[in-house]
Design a protein that fits this description.
Blueprint: E1 2-5, E2 8-11, H1 27-48, H2 53-59, H3 71-77, H4 80-90, E3 98-109, E4 117-127, E5 132-141, H5 145-157, E6 165-168, H6 172-181, E7 186-189, H7 191-199, H8 204-218, H9 223-237, H10 242-249, H11 252-256, H12 266-269, H13 273-286, H14 295-310, H15 320-333, H16 339-353
Helix pairs in contact: 2-3, 5-6, 7-10, 8-9, 13-14
């Protein structure tokens, strides 16, 4: 019997035993199986971090040129990613008290359909304790209302609480699904997308001036200041660049909602940039594959790449004052309180009665 290990394939002779009800158990095979687990982890990490099955096959070649692993064996070893993905898709989300939710999609080429690309929908969040967590991935085909609605309902079904804010681009189906599932949450329009859309509608000579005015809106100290900055934009550019003004005013309330969260959090909630950067890392990995053969292979690799990238996301430091601001905003929106806040309110009522 040949046992693949991280050190190469090792031949092991297994004796045949007779006249005994007790089967033979090899301590050597048990030891080598542990080394096979090391091999599986090694191959899986190589695959998820950028090597194709052919690259891995060639990497596991001994001094004589003999292949220690075939492509089919590599595929078999990386199946642990699929089992990890299935567990990820069904895990309980109640341990993650999400305050700020972010939604986006990545599109990948697939051989199994006539479509050029199919979408993979993604959600991540910033929790009350500052953790950044990848929450869900699912095939979306198109960014339709129906696909996003099913995706968001999955988050609710798995116990995720209603988020304080939801940041997304301007896809109509996505916006409609957000407002259907979480009508009380503050919906935030991604400022990276918003700024690009506005700047695309002005001549190059005016871009710097328009960009500076957009920054005044985005960086306003308060919601009222942001609204005043919008009026200055209207007065300055409305007549010259009506298309740019129309783009700015499209979904304007959502474009200003980031000004209602604690000031230190605004740079995090006003864009989906973290997810965009993670998608860029995923695309560097998947570009070695011209086209996925199956949904299974696509989701397995995309999950492996995004999951590993998300492990490097830095935790936010959130102060007690910021937590109180977040709780106050949730109360204003009519959202359920955290356990800590409910306990605090109960204590305040008890003290008042006493």
């Amino acid at each position: 019997k040949r046992v693949p290990t991280a050190e190469g394939a090792i031949p092991v002779h297994v004796p045949q035993v007779r006249d005994t009800a007790e089967p033979f158990e090899s301590r050597l095979l048990t030891f080598l199986t542990g080394h096979r687990d090391v091999l599986q982890r090694l191959v899986t990490e190589m695959y998820a971090r950028g090597l194709s099955t052919r690259d891995i096959e060639e990497a596991f070649t001994d001094a004589t040129g003999a292949r220690l692993l075939t492509k089919s064996q590599v595929s078999e070893l990386t199946e642990t990613l699929w089992s990890d993905f299935e567990a990820f898709q069904t895990r309980d989300l109640r341990p993650f008290p999400v305050e700020y939710l972010f939604l986006d999609a990545v599109f990948e080429p697939m051989r199994r359909t006539g479509r050029t690309r199919e979408g993979v929908l993604a959600a991540w969040g910033i929790c009350r304790d500052g953790r950044r967590v990848l929450l869900h991935l699912a095939l979306g085909n198109t960014e339709s209302y129906e696909n996003w609605l099913e995706f968001l309902r999955n988050l609710v079904k798995r116990g995720m609480r209603t988020p304080t804010t939801v940041t997304s681009d301007g896809a109509p189906g996505l916006i409609r699904a957000i407002e259907q599932v979480w009508p009380q949450s503050l919906r935030i329009r991604c400022w990276a997308h918003k700024a690009r859309n506005v700047l695309d509608k002005v001549p190059d000579a005016a871009r710097a001036d328009v960009k500076a005015h957009l920054a005044q809106i985005r960086e306003a100290a308060t919601l009222a200041d942001g609204q005043q900055a919008v009026q200055r934009f209207r007065d300055t550019f409305g007549a010259r660049y009506p298309s740019a003004l129309k783009s700015l005013e499209d979904d304007l309330e959502a474009s200003l909602n980031h000004l209602r969260v604690p000031a230190a959090h605004r740079k995090y909630v006003r864009t989906t940039n973290l997810l965009e950067r993670t998608f860029e890392e995923e695309r560097r990995r998947t570009k070695v594959i011209p086209r996925f053969w199956t949904e299974h292979s696509a989701l397995k690799l995309i999950f492996g790449t995004l999951d590993r990238a998300s492990r490097r996301w830095q935790r936010l430091t959130i102060s007690e004052i910021e937590i109180k601001h977040m709780d106050q905003l949730r109360e204003e929106l009519g959202l359920e309180m955290s356990v800590e806040r409910k306990t605090e309110q109960t204590g305040e009522i008890s003290s008042g009665v006493a």
